[in-house]
Design goal:
Strand content: 5-15%
Structural class: alpha+beta
Mean pLDDT: 78
Distance between the termini: 58 Å
Low-confidence stretches: 1-10, 345-374
Number of strands: 6
CATH topology of the largest domain: Multidrug efflux transporter AcrB transmembrane fold
Shape: elongated
Number of domains: 2
CATH class of the largest domain: Mainly Alpha
């Protein structure tokens, strides 16, 4: 079980994994913010260019089209493809999938918008090859306007969600944290949608639902970090510690919790992809799970390398956190603060220190953090 900040730890673990487990890490997240900004910029550039260059691979729910559910007693995916090819139907954007239901297995065939005459002709050919009557084939025609309505409602829900989140975080924390959280969520949505464009994944209503779902996940991870940041703001208020050090201490203290949350959330999604979609053939699950997986990975990344650095950039310019001439704390001195101790004044000014003041102490009060060395007492006159 990992120890909480402020507890006395007699010995620092030798391995990085053990230090992570015990909450003894001293990673300089703030010092590496430029690397995170470069990685995010590259991802955003690639995904945005892909969105403008090749767009999204929208399913028939958004662009309109016709779908058939053909009983799969003797009918196969290859049979459906042969029927479409023989009828000179453009198969670009079409989807043929084998699905299961309570009524038995069936092959779902989806093509872009065609005429009513072509749809009736294909229904007859599917029925002939499958050895069933035309009445046993379920035919659905989707209008493009229906997909447009879904898109407009999704965008409206996204805007309302961002506004509500901004108001809530501004009240619960402060406006700078709200700005940082919104920036991180927009970062996640743009990259997630861009990756769908880049790899040509089909966008369905399930994908839209997943995109809205990952916003909540991204926000949760960010709020966990900000809650610890707020605690450490109180701890370091009025003392000579830069806001970058507050961010570093907070990130190292919650890193194990964030890792556990991410792993426990991603494992079920991976199971949906491998077992649900891969083994059981539930393709609808893959449409939802791929979007969730991409969103969770980007959400975990953005809470560390987007939300926290954005907050630090906004705070270091505020009057309350100006620390001119204060050195950025790293290494053993950072680990000391992570574990709830204090460091000497020489460490604060950037000088190396090996004395006992730089070691871990049991005190975690704000007065003990980076305090000045005690002055000698004056002798009283009698």
């Amino acid at each position: 079980m990992s120890e909480q900040p402020g507890t006395h730890t007699a010995e620092i673990a030798a391995s990085g994994a053990r230090r992570l487990f015990l909450g003894q890490t001293s990673i300089d997240f703030f010092g590496r913010r430029i690397i995170g900004a470069i990685v995010s910029s590259i991802l955003l550039l690639v995904t945005v260019v892909s969105l403008f260059a090749q767009g999204l691979n929208l399913g028939i729910d958004f662009e309109g089209g016709t779908s058939w559910d053909v009983p799969a007693n003797v009918f196969t995916v290859a049979d459906a493809d042969e029927v479409l090819t023989a009828s000179s139907i453009d198969t670009e954007g079409s989807r043929i999938q084998l699905r299961d239901s309570d009524g038995g297995a069936f092959v779902k065939v989806q093509v872009r918008a065609i005429s009513d005459a072509q749809a009736r002709e294909l229904s007859g050919q599917f029925a002939e090859v499958a050895g069933v009557s035309v009445d046993e084939i379920n035919v659905n025609v989707v209008s493009a306007s229906w997909g447009s309505d879904i898109t407009n409602k999704a965008v409206r829900a996204l805007v309302i969600f961002l506004i509500v989140v901004a108001i809530f975080i501004s009240i619960r924390f402060e406006w700078r944290m709200a700005v940082a959280a919104i920036v991180a969520m927009i970062h996640d949505v743009v990259i997630s949608v861009g990756l769908y464009s880049l790899f040509g994944f089909v966008v369905t209503p399930a994908t839209v639902i997943a995109f809205l779902t990952i916003l909540g996940y991204s926000l949760y991870d960010t709020i966990v970090v900000f809650d610890r940041v707020r605690e450490n703001e109180t701890r370091f208020a009025g003392v000579r510690v830069g806001y970058g050090d507050v961010i570093n201490v907070s990130m190292n203290q919650v890193m194990m919790r964030s890792a556990n949350t991410s792993i426990s959330s991603i494992l079920p999604v991976v199971s949906l992809l491998i077992i649900g979609a891969g083994v059981l053939g539930a393709s609808t699950l893959s449409e939802f799970a791929i979007a969730l997986l991409i969103g969770m990975l980007t959400g975990t990344y953005s809470s560390v390398f987007v939300a926290a650095p954005t907050l630090a950039t906004l705070k270091i310019w505020s009057e309350a956190w100006k620390r001119d001439g204060v050195a950025h704390i790293t290494g053993q001195d950072l680990r000391t603060l992570v574990l709830g101790g204090s460091v000497s004044r020489r460490a604060r000014s950037g000088e190396s220190t090996t004395d006992s003041a730089s070691q871990i102490s049991g005190s975690s009060s704000a007065a003990s953090v980076l305090q000045h060395e005690p002055r000698p007492r004056k002798k009283r006159r009698r």
